[in-house]
Amino acid sequence: MRASDKAYQTLLDEIVDGTLPPGTVLAEVEQAARIGVSRTPLREALGHLRKDGLVEPLAGRGLIVTAVSIDDIVELYELRQPLEQQAARLAAQRGNPQVFAQIAKELRGSDALIDSGEVGIKAYYQLNERLDRAIEDSISSAYLVAALKALHLHLARIRRLSRQNVNRLRAAAVETLVIVEAIVNRDPDLAASATHVHLQQSLRNSLETIQTRTIDKVA
Amino acid sequence: MRASDKAYQTLLDEIVDGTLPPGTVLAEVEQAARIGVSRTPLREALGHLRKDGLVEPLAGRGLIVTAVSIDDIVELYELRQPLEQQAARLAAQRGNPQVFAQIAKELRGSDALIDSGEVGIKAYYQLNERLDRAIEDSISSAYLVAALKALHLHLARIRRLSRQNVNRLRAAAVETLVIVEAIVNRDPDLAASATHVHLQQSLRNSLETIQTRTIDKVA
DNA sequence: CTAACCATTAATGTATACAAAGAACCGTGA
DNA sequence: TCACGGTTCTTTGTATACATTAATGGTTAG
């Protein structure tokens, strides 16, 4: 593995999982020493993170980890909505129905997973990741896939901020199942509409959860 | 201006305008010497171009300028459609109607521009760029704007491949006017639909133009 | 006491030297 | 003549030294 890749992956993981919270100053020499690479590959990593929108230059202070406000969540969904609707639409047109039928089958049993504690919930998340992968594999457009990948970076960060409760997960599983079944039945319009509905609910939940947390903080 | 920015801008321009055609090998030392910077900032520039999707690694041969096939054009539009529909929708919701009314006014006179030769056509293109800018300014979502910017990089490249004739430009102006008027009237759905129509026509024209050229080549 | 300017310093930005990995080419053998 | 192996050379990847810029703190003048 190249040193620049190592630096990028390390910083990316730490930003996404919150180890490096928003506002953290990333000084080159400091981070290079910490990660164990020289400044050259570290700079390359920082450049990529800047393109990803995960760090930004702060006048004279170097680079800092970007903030994620409530407005950012809304704005992110204004990109997520059209991208994932299109992705679902194309998957319904081109995807292998058998692949999605299998995922649908597993989704129908996801309630049991969700109710079976931490391990089950993790398995449920992995099922969702498999669905995302299957959709991306069905899309031939490299451009759309790239845009989706960039999007998911930011989504992963937000997911940490607004942790979903079990009720929301169960509801989300039902919504997702509608999408997957539409893909199996090669119904692009339904797949897109179901995605629209799912994301609207998902956004609403995110905002409500954040809201609650903010209130908790104030109290 | 930083040396890395200079290198990035230079290479970007040359790739977009065709000076560096697809398949061109970009060796670091060679390009660094040509542009007049050292390898370090040049590598930074190449890294960004790679993230943009304008260059790609070729096993052992370093980086080459990516190809643009007919399939790529179709795939690019599969990203463009949802992004620009969403952009038009948001602009219709949030844009300043006066700004777009002014653009609409100028669009109504664009036939005269298009018929007045090279200079007029250039002015027409600039009008379109102003429209794009106005739409981006109306969108609050930084994520969507970033995705649009990345998209427009590739579109600029394709525009060179399929040069539009005067008839197409006139038709495009009419289609664009429908979009802009929908924005002025704060009609998001119409703005999105009109964008859908416009891009569909635009794609069709691109493919036909490419097709013709290919036939010419064979003949 | 405050404000402005200079010096110091710590950071980024750049250049270059070095290392490592891979490809091409030449030579030798069958 | 072809195949295989080794060597050389070109390339990318990394480290480090140097340049430059901007911020900070102290000192001095008003």
What overall geometry of chain A do the principal axes of the alpha carbons give? globular
Number of strands of chain A: 3
What's the end-to-end separation of chain A, in Å?
A: 47 Å
Write down the CATH class of the largest domain in chain A.
Mainly Alpha
Unreliable stretches covering 5 or more consecutive residues of chain A = 214-219
Beta-strand content of chain A: under 5%
Q: Helix count of chain A? A: 10
Give the largest chain-chain interface (CB within 8 Å): A-B, 31 and 31 residues
Largest sheet of chain A: 3 strands, antiparallel
**Percentage of residues assigned to helices of chain A:** over 70%
Radius of gyration of chain A (Å): 19 Å
Tally of structural domains of chain A: 2
What's the average pLDDT of chain A?
93
Structural class of chain A: mainly alpha
Q: What is the string of helix and strand elements of chain A? A: HEHHEEHHHHHHH
Fold-level CATH name of the largest domain in chain A: Four Helix Bundle (Hemerythrin (Met), subunit A)
CATH A-level architecture of the largest domain in chain A: Up-down Bundle
- Oligomer, anyone? homodimer
Q: How are the strands of the biggest sheet of chain A laid out side by side?
A: 1-3-2
